[in-house]
Amino acid sequence: MALAAACSETTTKDIQKDIQGDWELYSAERDGKNIATLEGTYFNFTGDTLISNFPTTPKIPYTVPIKITSNTITNLEQEVVFIVEPENYTDTLHLSTMFKGNGFDLMLRRVDSQ
After folding, report:
1. Could you tell me the CATH number of the domain that includes residue 20?
2. Maximum CA pair distance of the chain?
3. Which residues fall within 8 angstroms of residue 21, CB to CB, at 6 or more apart?
């Protein structure tokens, strides 16, 4: 049990560290179908904060506190949970979520902040 907990904690810290920075959407699916309406969507992870324009609130863009545990990112204000799919996180990030009864798969690419 202790080993499993230690591995989970390492994964959480690694994910939190690896996803820091700016990401832009390059592909999105809603319930398995390609959608273009999310073009221009971005995510910025800074510490325990998310800045995004993914339409979960009427106010876009928004800044919210997040909690990262194992392979999930939870938007603590709207109770939206993003599942971090296994990836390298160097150049791409794959997030999936359920929102308003629809399943979303979001493919993001890292944006250089230079």
Report:
1. 2.40.128.280
2. 45
3. 44, 45, 110, 111, 113
Q: Tell me the three state secondary structure of residue 13.
A: helix
Structure tokens at 11: 């994964």
Contact present, 81 and 73 (Cβ < 8 Å): yes
The CA distances from residue 79 to 21, 67, 72, in Å, are 22, 10, 12
Q: What is the number of structural domains in the chain?
A: 1
Convert the pLDDT of each residue in 84-112 to its tens digit.
987 667 789 999 999 888 999 999 999 98
Tell me the residue type at 38. L
pLDDT digits (tens, 9 = 90+) for 48-61: 999 999 988 778 89
Domain span including residue 41: 2-111
Give the Cβ contact number of residue 87 at 10 Å: 16
